[in-house]
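Protein in question kept underneath.
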Amino acid sequence: MAFFKDFKSFLLKGDIINLATAVIVGGAFGKIVTSFTKDILMPPIGMLLGDVNFTDLKYVLKEATTNAAGAEVPAVAINYGNFIQMVIDFIIIGFCIFMVLKAYENSKKKEEAAPAPPTGPTQEELLAEIRDLLKK
C-alpha cells in the first residue's frame, strides 16, 4: 500500500508534470518541424537541384525480384534521401531549441541585473528613532 502512495506522490510532483508536458509539446513540435522540412523546405531545394525528390534518393543494393513461389521480394536499398531530410529536421529543431534557451537565459540575466528596490529603515531603526524623539 505504501508503494502506491509513494508512486502517486512521485507522479503528482510538479517536476514530473512539467517533464510530461515538455515531452508532449516536444513531440508535437517535432512533427511540425518534420512537416515543415518535408513539405515546405525540401521541395524547393529539390527543384533547385534538378527536380530531385529527397525521399526517393537511395542506393539500391539488390533489385526487387520474384522468387520461385511467385512472391515479390522487395529491393534492398540504402535510403540516404530520408537520412538527409532527418538531418535537416535535427538541425532545425536544434536551432529552435537554441533560440528558446538563449531567450530564457537573457530573461534570467535581466531579472538578476534588475536592482532590488530600496528598502526603508528597519523596524529597530524606526523604534530607536521614536525613542529618541520621545526623549526630547
Summary: The chain has a mean pLDDT of 83. The chain has one domain: 2-112.
